[in-house]
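pls read this protein.

:::
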Amino acid sequence: MLNDPWAPLVSSIRRRRAPDARFFKPVCLIATIDLSNEGRLDPKKLDAEVIISRFKAYVSLVFEGRAEMGWKPLWHISNDGLWNFYTNGIALGPDDFGADRKPGTKSVLFNRFQELSIDERYQDLWQDQSQRMTLRHAMLDILANDDADCRRFARQLFHADLAMQPHRWPSEEEVIGELRLSRRQLDLFDDATTGEVIDRLEDDGFEQSAEEVAVVPLPNIGPLLQTASLIEIEAVASPTAKLNSASEIDLEKNPHIDSSDDAPDLEDFPEIQTVQIGVILASLPGNAPKGLTFALIAYKTELEKRGARPIVGILTNQHAIIEAEYSHSDASDWLPTGMKQAAFPDFFRYHLLFLEHFPFIAEREKVISRINVDESKASGEDLIKPFRAALEMAKAAQNAGVATSDVVQFMQELKQGAESLASLPNDVPLPQVSSEERLAPTAATPKQRLIGTAIGFLERAYTLLGTTVGVGTATYPAFAQNLVYVLDMLKSLMRNG
């Protein structure tokens, strides 16, 4: 569904599951929903033992040896953001469990928390039984579109009242058929209410639209959430990822973040800025940093390609690199006085004036500025390494027909940005002057922009591949594995607290 408020949560659960226990999270969540439908759970004070007991009952009919493991998905779903464990009113996180970043046993977990409750952003949704059933349906969809073990649970849990009666479970074909029909009905409703005609992709018998993958509503960020989550970063991805007509991963504008106000003077900015950059590039001395030149060219290329409706994330990322090089203390050694006092300040001013025509960019700025970069890791070769791996992955994907040349170019620009920032001593927010104060309070650092831009795009690409397993060739699973590897490297540059 295009406007599904559960979309960020479902996307996170679909992607972040243990390879050897892919049914754990969906089954645990379905158990919780069923208990809530029976009136046995208070969303502000969930009974963890009751949830685990229901999980055990469900799983014992299929995998008796794993029925005691319900505490594991119970904990890990908190990392997806649906609920939180609290001790003395403070939410527990991975850092509270030492180097392993997770509880090693049920007793360790249960001895650490006092309360378990649905996160504030989902409280109202959870109180609505129809919304809970929508989420339950999404979990069944995940199970039915996965491995044999997961599909068995889809059969068992398709009808809650038949879950403990194996002889009455529907067949796999019946489950798939019912889910397909339900999805089509929802899609027709969506089309009728939005007035849009959407081209659809076939995915192992399920329909999934490319636009549906690209459009994820921004989560409602609670006041206690300080560090930007991966779900939030993915939601403000700019560029985002899409599948083109050849079933290749390609760059796409974020339909929310990259939308402009279509003001009369909007078309003037790309022409003015390309001229400005042309003058700067022609005047740069030979000892100017290579990273500065690359960033100016990348900025100019985006304007030439998309004009007054660019991918704003590309512009802001390159602008941050340009400004970091310009603001570096050694710039006076190579930058002529005229360029330092006039050319670059004019370019920076027009950049900010241009951004004022993108009313939703402030939402992205707030998220990016809250990325907690680990400075002890995000420097030197450690900063460059994941971006080098991302570029090699993109090249291999292009050769395999899974990604476009634009994706390769984008990864090349990110790698060049990492090489520039790796050599600069400090990563601090750069002051921004704007006729509106929308951007100034949430100024992000260049490294936050670089890491956030990369993670946002790659997380979206991984989500997209997760819904298109039946499209293309066997290279898709390999590409997905490489994405996970690169994303893990990028995430290691961030602190979680």
